[in-house]
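Recall that a protein's primary structure is simply its ordered list of amino acids. Everything else, from secondary elements to tertiary packing, is in principle encoded there. The following example makes that idea concrete.
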Amino acid sequence: MKTRYYYGYNIVLAGFLIQTFCIGAMFTYGVFFREFQQEFGWSRALISGASSMAFFVMGTGALITGTLNDKIGPRLILTVSGTTIGAGYLLLSQLNMPWQLFLLYGLFAGIGFSTHDVITLSTIARWFVKKRGLMSGIVKAGTGIGQFSGPLIASMLIPVFGWRNSYLIIGAVVLVVLVSAAQIMRRDPHKMGLQVDGSREENYVIGSSITGSSLSLKGAVKTRQFLSICFAEFAAFVCLFTIIVHIVPYSMDRGLEPAIAAFVLSAIGGSSMIGRIIMGITNDRIGGKGSLIICFMVLITSLILLQFTSGIWMLFIFAVVYGFAHGGVFTVMSPMIAEYFGMTCHGQLFGAVLFIGTIGATIGPILAGYLFDITGGYGAAFMALTFFAVAGFIPILFISHISGVGRE
C-alpha cells in the first residue's frame, strides 16, 4: 500500500529543473563560441580549452560532491553550486582576457556543472527502486529540454541585447532557479520517515530489486566491472562533449546561418529527451548492460553518419540519431552503478565514474579544436570520435554482475 502523494516526486521535479537550467546554460557555449572568435580573434583551440577545463573541473567536483552527498545530502551542495554557476555567467558579461574565460567558465561554471548529474541522479536512486530508470529518465529529460532551449534562447538574445547582456540575463535566471530548486532536495526518504517508492512496508527495500550488498569505491576499483564502466564512460564523454562544443561551429562552416546552426544543437536536445525516457524504461526492463549496449550502437551509427553529411537535412538526421544516444548514455549510467555495486556509496561511485568520464570530456573538445586548427576541417576529429566510441563499446559486451553485490 502506498501513500497518496510521495515526496519523491518533488525530488524528481527539483532534479528536472536543475538539469534543465544547468545544461541549458552549458549548451549556450557553442553559440557564444563564434562571438568570442569575432570580438577577440581567439583560436578554436583556446576557446575549446576553456570548455575542456570546465569539464575537468566538473569531473573532479563530481567525485568530491558525490562523496559529500552520501554523508550530508544534496541541499547545501546544490545551493553552493547553483550560486557558483550563476555568478560565473554573470561575470562573463565583463569578459576581455583569455584568463578570465578560463577562470569564470573553466573554474566557476565547471564547479556549478559538477553537481547536476551526480547529486540529482544519486538522490533519485535513493528515493526510487522499482522505477529508478524511468525517474532518472524523467530527470534527465530536463537536460534534453535545456539542450533544446538553451542554444535557441541564446541565439535570440544575442542579436537583440548583445552577447555581454545575454550573459547577464542567463546568469541571473540560472542563479535564481538553481538555488530555489536546491531547497526542495532531501537526501533520502528515511530522513523524512518515508520508505523507498512511497511504500508503507518497513521491509520494502529488502524485497525490492536490490538484494545484495554494496561495494565501496576501494572495493569497486578492484573489479573488472567497475573499470569497464569507467572506460566506457571515458570513451563516451570524449564523443559527447566534443559534439556539444563543436557541432555549431561545424554547422556554420558548412554554410548554415547562426540561428540554424544553433537549431542543430537544439535538435540534439529534443531527440535526447526521447532517448532519456525510452532508455530509462528500457533500463528498468533489461538492466544496465543491455541498455548501454543499445546506446553505444546508436552512438557509433550517428558518428559514422556525421562523416558523410552533405547537406542540412543530413545534419538534422545526424542530430536526431546522435541525440537519442546522447540522452540514453547519460540516463543509464546512474541506475547501472546502483545495479552492479549497490547504494551505500552510490554517490561516491557515480562521482568517480563521472570524474573518469570528464577526463574524456576534457580531452575531446580541445583535441578536436587542435585537429581543426592544423587540418582546416573536422574530418580527422570525427574519425577519432568513432574510434573512441567503438573502443568504449567493446568492454561493455563482456561485463557481468558481481556475485552477492547489487542486483541479483
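The domain at 8-396 is CATH 1.20.1250.20 (Growth Hormone; Chain: A;). The chain has one domain: 8-396.
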